[in-house]
Here is the input.
Amino acid sequence: MIFRQIILAILLALSLTSCLPAAPPAISTPTGLATAPAPPPIPSMSPPGNTIQPQLAWFYKPPFEADELFFLAREYNFFILTRGDERERGQLLDFGAHQPILQYLRFDTIHALEDCEARPRRNQVAYRAGDYCAISRDHADWFLLNRQGERILQSFEDQTYIMMDPGNSGWRAFFLERVRDSQSDPNWGGVFLDNVEVTFAFRETAGEFPLAYADEESYLAASQGMLEMLQREYFQPNQKLLFANIAARRDDSNWMTYLTHLDGAMHEGWAVDWPDRIRSA
Here is the structure.
């Protein structure tokens, strides 16, 4: 498990640093004099001034041993953890870990627990016991339905998650309320949203298109609208970061549209595509 997390951390780190700007091009000043062509420059053996030093990011469950946490605090530069990891987060900070530390949240789903007394997983916003039961009973319109009128289920680590409608105002308000609640802890520096779908690619693979959205453009407008709302209502006024995993890309053309609403993003398929393919050049 630790090895898998380290691999994910390296992929995340490279994706987060690969978008940093390069140095501006040199500006030549015309002299008005004809000169012989300059000889080709001799390659320098020293790195340019804007060399990007690779940084490691930890994503997203911490180890539990103090010596391992000390190693992370010393060697890693960026951390994404979940609600419930506050003890390990505090130890990392005591060991001198870099801030900010972001809180992981799923953007697309909630954890579906039929046992209303059980505590759901805290990697999503319906993290209180009974949340799923109350939402299912009182706010059925918050769920994203397929074109057969059924809720769209996802399975992850033997747990069931159900997709939510990013365009529903009630769901947006609930999501914002829970972000405010969890981020009231000052040691969280912002949120990392997982699974922000930017095309219908996953919907096509699953064969479950959302009933409320006739086309891809309207579906994406809903998710972008939710991100814009979160930035406007909470993250910008409180100077906290909003990062996301931009998922279900067909190519890289969606990046700039979504970065308008984000402070940073993860490109988890830059070298190895899901589930087991090497990306072609």
The first helix runs from residue 2 to 17.
